[in-house]
């Protein structure tokens, strides 16, 4: 085999820890905020270096950005990358993932191609997981996202382990190929001082749009199908009732506990049926929802977004359809899609491909979309659906808006999709003005499925997808039977830095159990290893939607707030009366959790006697 050629594409992002909201304008302050390598990209850099160490070859790093992006490239060189390339041109500013992935693909072609092209799993500024798969699609080469291990490379093929929330596959893929690397794949190395010094004077090749032969209509803001039309701080949707519990912790404990019980009772009695909104406009095309499934089981996230798509379709005075792709064994889920709100189901039959395969499912979805021309396609926030949305957007030639948490429709029938950016420190409202269908990925756990309507049916349109072929060969497969109890619990107790030490966690676990709930933690505690990472609540952890969320010693950083805002009710106890959590809860106590929680435990025990 010829010398292995490995390219890593990285991104610079503002350091989220230094971002802040201007208290006067409520806008995000970006001036003077340092840019850093997108944290997940370090794992892609590390994987490239490890591949070179194992199999030999040459490594190259590239990024698109202004001149100061050289700093990120030099950091990659210091880690051990051989060559660095900066794609810099004012015409490329403002690019969305469609235009960015096109630019990266043109740069890879300018390099003469590569055997392996690596990306980090996601971009932390907008939680997109799109550029890697989309670059592969532009280049016409296989894509495997969410790779936790590259096992072997030989005879022009790689064997990789792909891990999603629900399954793990060992896949053989011909090279060249694109892989996105999970953060669990490796631990990035720290460059030594000599390498850092050497990297400061290393050559960085700079190319503009003409050097990579990029078409002007496909780059930058002008070439981007999606546009940001509004940026705003996260909305305040609650009216907090806060009391001072420092003088009388016992009274505060009783008040707080009663609020928890009242909230649970209110949640139980709340309206559980769908109320159809009044139409704002009439559109001629349908709203579609891709139904992600594992064999004959629908992923819950698909039913969540089906309910929101139902609402948007009603606002547009049109119908909502589910899109089911697969073979014989998946036909059983069609009736379930009707029962959760779909008027119609498009069944793309892919014989022999009951499980998700990116190449086959991209072909199937694109065929349906090009033939029936929907207004929009909603995708649930699962890994497989995000990958499919990314490659399908290039195949269909349309825009894709990532990680949305809120939707509306304007009076012209344009879908307004809002997502949190920069760890939730601001909200961006994005549109896709010229391209149809508008495609969106959504965050799991934000929306609630409609009540199931047994026996409800609708129209079925079946398309048999012919000439099926995939370059991906699954060598091993297993389901991951791992439940996320945070998303299933009615009561979640979250603890933050205020618990002071890991030894204190057990006390709060016991409190959560006494309430019939489960314990979760803020990001700092998970990062410090005080509690399992899968119990982290927040944008980079788990988004929860319990009946009651109780924040104990949690300050309420925006990253955390993004993960809890869909909770029916939020209660908080914190010694700091200026903690942001008090602006984003329904009831709270300014007090000491080590005084108030034990008193609540006593009251719970008395209640149970």
From TrEMBL:
Pfam families: ETF, ETF_alpha. InterPro entries: DHS-like_NAD/FAD-binding_dom (IPR029035), ETF_a/b_N (IPR014730), ETF_alpha_N (IPR033947), ETF_asu_C (IPR014731), ETF_b (IPR012255), ETF_beta_N (IPR033948), Rossmann-like_a/b/a_fold (IPR014729). Gene3D superfamilies: HUPs (3.40.50.620), TPP-binding domain (3.40.50.1220). It comes from the Archaea. GO terms for molecular function: electron transfer activity. Residues 25-216, 287-476 form the Electron transfer flavoprotein alpha/beta-subunit N-terminal domain. This is Electron transfer flavoprotein. It comes from Sulfolobus acidocaldarius (strain ATCC 33909 / DSM 639 / JCM 8929 / NBRC 15157 / NCIMB 11770).
